[in-house]
Write a structure and sequence with these properties.
By secondary structure, the protein is mainly α. It is built from 13 helices and no strands.
Amino acid sequence: MKTEKNEARAGLLYGIGAYGMWGLVPLFWPLLKPAGAIEILAHRMVWSLVFVGVALLALRRWSWIPELLRSPRKLGMITLAAAVITVNWGLYIWSVNTGHVVEASLGYFINPLVTIALGVLVLKERLRPAQWAAVGVGLSAVLVLAVGAGRPPWISLTLAFSFAVYGLVKKKVNIGGLESLAAETAVQFLPALAYLVWLGTQGTLAFGSHGAGHTALLAATGIVTAVPLVCFGAAAIRVPLSTLGLLQYLAPTFQFLLGVVYFHEAMPAERWAGFSLVWLALTILTWDALRTARKSRAQVETAAAAARAETAPAAPANSAS
């Protein structure tokens, strides 16, 4: 029992660490200027593969590679995942470094709603009434934000849809976090390296041109990418999915607070209204998820109790004297 509690506590700390690091990453990308968003993205791809490769070498986790290479379908899915996460990473870096942290945070707030919508459209899942209500409120939030800004919140929507599609593809591939990142960055590696070499031939490569500290920070993009993922993987095997579902809101909350408090981005009334509707939708979604999880646990416990009662030996009858 004590070991289980320690594991659960460790899992919670790993989860908080993962989402906390993802939430604070907007503080990191501006440190990489004057490198442009695409160069930063290319470094992230190259150095992530280096870091993850070293980690897999240390752990001796290579047995998944031959199986992946023998599956054209999985290779295609990995390539699709790499393409989609490239869009997500690149747009997020650009958003942070051009003063759109709040709009980027909105993308990750509405991501659970987009994931549910994709479940209906792609996987033909059936939604509960509360989930329909949450999706409806989320759509209303997008309309309010679009009307208020005079344009759709395209940054938020692109981040939300790209990450939702990425999650859907990863679910179908079904390989571990480190292994998945290694496979995806292996797909990204050559184009990213070619782009960096091309920048070098043009004399516009920031890497190595702005001191050792700046060079080290660009190389650290691999660590910044992989460490939260490792923590997330450690959390996923130790805490219930419902707990991870609640923890996922930490990252966009931190990002939102950084955008408003640290980067001093504008928050007009219509933006507050849109965010309030998103938070209402997430509250409905969370309440429904917790209620459903409690009901499922109760049903499992009832079924287990009934099974134990059926298999229990009958009490011997008293013999008459």
